[in-house]
Design brief:
The chain has 2 domains: 2-221, Up-down Bundle (Rhomboid-like fold), CATH 1.20.1540; 244-307, Alpha-Beta Complex (Type Iii Antifreeze Protein Isoform Hplc 12), CATH 3.90.1210. The protein is 47% helix and 9% strand. It is built from 12 helices and 7 strands. It has helices at residues 15-33, 35-46, 50-55, 57-60, 63-66, 74-95, 97-118, 130-143, 156-165, 175-193, 202-221, 283-286, and strands at 2-6, 148-152, 170-174, 244-248, 263-267, 290-291, 306-307. The longest helix is centred in the first third of the chain and has 22 residues, at 74-95.
Length: 330
């Protein structure tokens, strides 16, 4: 299960989240440029080695931070950055830029300590942003449990359904379902690792998630984190999520007055549509209006594509009101 997006717009530009993604990419580029031996030296030096940290806490303390920006390979980096890109911007939107940066780094430190607790004698370096990202996922779960998250499900039955319907196996599910499923997989992976060694540091994932969850819950319990939005914060834009929307049923030319046979509604499925698109609930309001531009079969129709319809009882050149407008008294 891989997240590919969510339907929760942000009020702040996520500069910190972008910077964290860029820092991880730059660090990986440095590792790659150093060659195989150089990469091993970088990982051994700046990765989190539990045995070394316990033997020399002061000398190795910095690796609790530096290990968060190193990755083993391109797939490791891409997976972590995908999760950070999807969920990090909304958490930054809630915590603010500085608060999010401190939360992210502290979550990574807590995840690193959890890794040390679960494998205290290991001399294998632990690297990756997944521990800090786990804290971000937990924060998202507390702050936006009902937000819709689009996930790619690579399961036998979803792949079969994708082949039959010729569409990607992407589904919108509530954040609480996606994130609790992810956390459950980490718990199962950690338990199985006790019997069969794995290359994934599940202890860091679980530790980071619990740290992030308890941090946000603790702040709220202490009254330091309001349950209501900041009244001075800029207003959140209306979500672009539209369940069903109106499309052209045939080739439509600019200037054409639309009839019921010209348009129909379609299910949204997983694609993102513009806020200006006509929802299926307004299908009747489209009939009689004229198109400003050409439209082809299955192309979405937006309100800005339409000119108001003229009625026989209206004055020449006088248009009927737009949906939601009141007609001016004569």
């Amino acid at each position: 299960m891989f997240p590919v997006g969510d339907e929760l717009p942000t009020r702040r530009t996520p500069f910190v989240n972008w910077t964290l993604v860029a820092a991880c990419i730059v660090a990986f580029g440095y590792e790659t440029a150093a060659g195989q031996l150089g990469q091993r030296l970088v990982v051994d030096t700046w990765g989190l080695v539990p045995a070394r940290l316990l033997a020399d806490p002061r000398g190795a303390a910095l690796t609790l931070l530096t290990h968060q920006f190193l990755h083993a390979d391109l797939l490791h980096l891409a997976g972590n950055m995908l999760f950070l890109w999807v969920f990090g911007d909304n958490v930054e939107d809630e915590l603010g830029h500085l608060g999010y940066l401190l939360f992210y780094l502290a979550g990574g430190v807590c995840a690193g300590l959890a890794s040390v607790v679960t494998r205290p004698g290991s001399d294998v370096p632990g690297i990756g942003a997944s521990g800090a990202i786990s804290a971000v996922l937990a924060a998202y779960l507390v702050l936006h449990p009902l937000a819709e998250v689009r996930v790619l499900l690579l399961l036998p039955w979803t792949l079969l359904g994708a082949l039959l319907t010729q569409s990607a196996p992407i589904y919108g599910i509530p954040a609480w379902g996606a994130l609790l499923a992810w956390f459950g997989l980490q718990l199962l992976g950690g338990l199985s690792a006790q019997f069969s060694p794995a290359g994934v540091d599940y202890g860091a994932h679980v530790g980071g998630f619990l740290a992030g969850y308890l941090a946000i819950r603790g702040l709220r319990a202490l009254g330091l984190w309001p349950d209501e939005p900041d009244p001075n914060a800029p207003p959140r834009e209306r979500s672009p999520m539209v369940r069903d929307y109106v499309v052209a049923a045939r080739v439509l030319r600019a200037g054409q007055a639309l009839s019921p046979a010209d348009v129909r509604w379609t299910e949204r499925r997983f694609e993102r549509v513009e806020p200006d698109v006509v929802p299926a609930t307004s299908l009747a309001d489209v009939v009689g209006r004229r198109l400003r531009v050409d439209r082809y079969p299955l192309e979405p129709i937006s309100w800005s594509d339409l000119e108001p319809a003229e009625t026989a009882t209206s004055e020449p050149g006088r248009a009927t009101p737009e949906p939601g407008e009141r007609a001016s008294p004569s």
